[in-house]
Amino acid sequence: MSFAKRFIANGTHITTNETEIKRIKVLNLTAGIALFHAVFFLIFDFITDTNSTEKLIALTLEMLFFLLIIWFQSKGWFKVARLSFMIVVFLLLLYHCNVAFKGYYGEYQYFVIPLFSLFLFDKYYLHYSLLVLSIAAFYVPNWYLNIYPEQYFGYLNALLLFVGIFLIMDFFKRNSEHNERALEKQLKENLSLHKTLDEQNKQLQSLNAFQNHFFVNIAHEMNTPVTLLKGQTHRLLKESNNSSFHETAGKIQVQVHKLEVLTTGIMDIAKIDSETLVLNKKVVSINQLVQSAYLEFQPIYEKKSVTLDLSLHEHDGYAKVDALYLERVLGNLLSNAFKFSSSGDQVKLGVTTENDRVSITVSDNAIGVPEEDLELIFERFYQSPNEINKSNGSGIGLSFAKEIIELHHGSIKACNNPRGGLTVQITLKGEEHPADSLSNTQETTKLQSLLGKKILVVDDNLEMREYLVDVLNEYHTITAENGVQALELIGKEKIDAIITDYMMPIMDGKQLVTELKKNQTRIPIVVITARADMGSNLDMQTLGVDDYLNKPFVEDELLLRLKNILTNDIERNLEIPEENEGETKPFKADTLTRCIQLVESNISNSYYGVAQLSEDLKISERTLYRAIKKETGLTPNQFIREMKLSKVRQQVELGNVTTLNDLALSVGLTNGTYLNQLYKERFGTLIEFSRV
Asked: Containing domain of residue 626, as a range?
């Protein structure tokens, strides 16, 4: 705490009364200002040689008296301090106006006495007494001392001024006190309500815990008979040849399966609550998964004469999910739609992909859900009040679906259809199309091809060159002291990548890169710099390098960056199958520049992806894929992501953001944690910046 804050808070630790604390602080501040005033004018009068005996006495007494008041405050003698303050102020003003500074019109300062009384005391007889005293002190001395001409007191202007200011301040004080009392009363009521709600919340939590525990125990108990029923029914079906018996046993099997699904769901909810549910995630085709669910439920829907329509996206969407649990979620949604549908109704199951998101929708034209219940239907054991739910249902299906989807870092929401019925939509983060990534064989070949790559290290510092050679020991490295030597080596040998310092004599890193670009030499380049203003004063994308690092850097970070640019270079040189669609518009030489411009202009648009980019360029997605892959070694999705991450890196270095979520939103992403994960994978380090 600063000296000023400690000074103003002097004595406040003795009481907890808010009004008293305010009065203590105001008196400390006022006494401090008065003390400063006395000391300042003592020094000023001494320097300017304008001192007089009267001034010296007045200022010295003022300094001593206010020091004494501050001391009273520190001891907790607050009433003594306040009474002393009022007396001292009155006597000092009396002495100043009539002796030390006579004729300087200081009498108007008397009106502060009743104002201070309003703030420091609660007794109104004291306020009015001090008001009368201050008016008397203004008028009476002049009758005897003739300090001012008679017209100075004409028309009772001072009297009206004193009384007017006092009444105005008194009004504001009364109003403030009334508001404070009302606020205090409201706070007490809120505190009481908060305690009541807290108690009720604890009771509800206890009840919910009991309910969950009860259902889990029942599920445990049901597991054994369900298992026995399932086994015995299977044995009977296997051993009996009676067709009628088979039909009946088959129906029993269906009901046993329902019981099994129910008990498994309850057990899974218990795992979710205890955070022991482990998902086995793999990249799967959402089209195939949804189609499988459709084929499973379509016969059941047919028996009830309910139409089940399937709509798959023309470009298959992929997501990293636990297929088993996602199938169960879809099963819950389709069972729910089936339960509320009647003969002749229609249920639509569909898949859509947009940017890096894959969505699954289940839409029916049944009775729908009251608007006020739309958020509640995902709560555990909640059931919307209707005739169907009264007859059956456990209230855990949609809750289970929501919790599973959230474990996948996705979202699930429900809305009523304009013409009746309910639509439930699941949205998951999309993954790269298999065509966008190398096969396992290609991946192995690619990693093997990184070994033995020739890396040119350019740095004028011998120790730095030796250090980099040591760090890059898995590669074949050669060194140069400056850009000129580097160009000579590049002319003689096949170089796979360059790591160069930015600041060097003879020819620095920027000049080296410029010369290479001028000669159209396509070699991946990483620039290392110690410049603190790198982010703001050097546009690396314009310079044309593949990556850059600021000193000091972490070895693993450098190795990851180098691996990334070498991988991109390998991908760029891979043979891409020719298109057989009869493309009419070839990929022009300046289209890559146009791609960069379009992505930059839509960088914060979360819905801008490959489809929109190809549409804006008026070329097919396949041609876009081939062209960007050829130019950059990246797929279109990777290219867009690279630009987003580059933008993020620039903002981090410039210090333009304060939170991960702000940073994610600025490049069209919704999850700051996911952004940080991508950033770590790309640049080898997590995002770090100051938080406020």
From this structure: 575-692
